[in-house]
């Protein structure tokens, strides 16, 4: 009796009738015959064969063996079905393998839905937690490649480089801009994409976020006279009361400043670009030292962004209404610096527009820079960024947009430090200069150095006079301002000597009791 050998190639089932030399294939549920040398072939697609199709058989030039095969079809059907079932099981198993492979190698669509922040952390980046928020995570690496990652409402993860407008997009843009492939980031042995989870909360739409922040801002009261801006940052209350738009969160005592972006508005005669409030910035009276899980931040968080980030802008009460009438525009890294600058320089607040970038220059802020440069044609635009590497970078970025801008640098790190240290040393705002700041500091440093070197050699009476003279400098005052003045040449060594000297004085006093 003839036996069957069944094999599968794509969607065709091949049946060999053994020991006959003819090869038969079933096609579309019908048996047909085609001469191929000494062989007969018949094809079946879709892996179906039905007994009732036998009445539709049409063939010609078919050998006796084929005729016998048709007559005995009932015997062969179970064998064919058995082989078909076996083949189908193999297909199901193959599909499962392919599905698993698809999970391991995500397609382009779901790759941009994987937590980009966690992928980068697995590839050598680390979070700058003091620069991160619920919706934005700031990452950097040892090569100082800093990016900010966000999660959109549709689940896609995007990033942007705060120092390069062309460096932004999804994971494919990130890898392309760095000369690598997306799969290179997933090749790390410690990455299991099915277990990646991000703590970044999806951003709500711009309009929703802005509306809520603006509504909350408008419900706040004007800043109080006893604000920490006066008690801790030493800004004159007379200056603060000139700004109705400078608000205060009464629950925590935070100072709140409005932020703006450029937006096109439709009119009958066409579109017009205007400054539109996008949110606000809260300057915290008490910096946040840890997150909600109790984990310490690398650096204290001093500001929070509400709504969508723009350029912080303050106009004094009764100031100019048209930008072309302003005589000064001051741009610093924080509004505290800008307010301090105005007090230090004695600027007329009604003729001055106060601005702040809040530590980063974004694309929306650049649009505002361009707007101010074009509209405030008569204003002297002053850049007062921090006196450090990052401040110099901001200065270059701003001058690319506002070439006519001038630069003014603080004596210390920023203008807030200048004001705080100057007033701590008993100086009035208009008396604070580099010489007036450094002279009392150098005098104090010289007294400490002399006494620390001569302490063991001085006669008791002379030693007593020198110690009394030193303590007349109000040592606690210098200790309070130590973190801000240590960058000044010689001051770091001064405080090291002071600590050793205090120990000597304390030990000698204890022995004499």
TrEMBL record:
Gene3D superfamilies named among the record's database cross-references: 3.40.1360.10
Protein name according to UniProt: DUF3991 domain-containing protein
Organism of origin: Campylobacter corcagiensis
Domain DUF3991, first and last residues per copy: 228-318
Domain of life: Bacteria
């Amino acid at each position: 009796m003839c036996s069957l050998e069944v094999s599968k190639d794509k969607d065709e089932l091949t049946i060999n009738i053994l020991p006959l030399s003819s090869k038969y294939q079933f096609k579309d549920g019908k048996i047909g015959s085609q001469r191929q040398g000494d062989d007969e072939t018949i094809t079946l697609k879709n892996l179906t064969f039905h007994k009732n199709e036998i009445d539709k058989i049409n063939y010609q030039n078919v050998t006796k063996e084929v005729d016998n095969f048709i007559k005995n079809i009932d015997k062969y059907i179970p064998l064919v079905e058995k082989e078909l079932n076996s083949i189908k099981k193999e297909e199901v198993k193959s599909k499962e393998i392919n599905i698993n492979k698809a999970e391991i190698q995500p397609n382009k669509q779901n790759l941009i839905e994987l937590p980009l922040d966690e992928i980068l952390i697995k590839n050598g980046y680390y979070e700058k937690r003091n620069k991160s928020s619920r919706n934005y995570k700031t990452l950097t690496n040892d090569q100082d490649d800093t990016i900010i990652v966000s999660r959109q409402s549709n689940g896609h993860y995007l990033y942007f480089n705060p120092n390069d407008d062309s460096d932004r997009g999804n994971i494919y843009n990130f890898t392309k801009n760095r000369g690598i492939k997306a799969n290179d980031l997933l090749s790390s042995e410690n990455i299991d994409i099915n277990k990646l989870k991000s703590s970044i909360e999806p951003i709500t739409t711009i309009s929703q976020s802005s509306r809520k922040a603006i509504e909350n801002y408008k419900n706040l009261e004007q800043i109080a006279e006893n604000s920490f801006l006066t008690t801790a940052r030493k800004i004159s209350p007379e200056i603060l009361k000139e700004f109705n738009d400078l608000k205060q969160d009464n629950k925590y005592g935070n100072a709140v400043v409005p932020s703006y972006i450029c937006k096109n508005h439709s009119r009958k005669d066409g579109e017009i670009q205007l400054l539109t409030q996008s949110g606000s910035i809260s300057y915290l009276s008490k910096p946040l030292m840890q997150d909600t899980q109790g984990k310490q931040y690398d650096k204290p968080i001093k500001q929070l962004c509400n709504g969508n980030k723009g350029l912080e802008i303050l106009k004094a009460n009764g100031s100019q209404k048209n930008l072309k009438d302003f005589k000064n525009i001051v741009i610093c890294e924080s509004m505290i610096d800008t307010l301090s600058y105005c007090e230090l320089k004695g600027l007329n607040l009604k003729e001055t527009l106060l601005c702040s970038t809040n530590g980063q220059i974004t694309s929306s802020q650049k649009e505002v820079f361009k707007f101010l440069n074009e509209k405030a044609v008569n204003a002297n635009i002053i850049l007062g960024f921090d006196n450090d590497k990052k401040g110099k970078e901001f200065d270059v970025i701003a001058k690319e947009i506002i070439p006519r801008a001038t630069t003014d640098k603080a004596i210390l790190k920023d203008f807030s430090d200048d004001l705080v240290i100057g007033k701590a040393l008993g100086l009035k705002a208009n008396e604070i200069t580099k010489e007036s700041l450094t002279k009392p500091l150098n005098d104090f440093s010289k007294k400490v150095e002399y006494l620390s070197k001569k302490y063991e050699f001085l006669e008791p009476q002379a030693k007593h006079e020198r110690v009394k003279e030193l303590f007349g400098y109000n040592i606690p005052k210098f200790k309070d301002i130590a973190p801000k003045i240590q960058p000044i040449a010689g001051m770091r060594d001064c405080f090291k000597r002071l600590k050793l000297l205090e120990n000597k004085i304390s030990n000698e006093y204890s022995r004499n009791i």
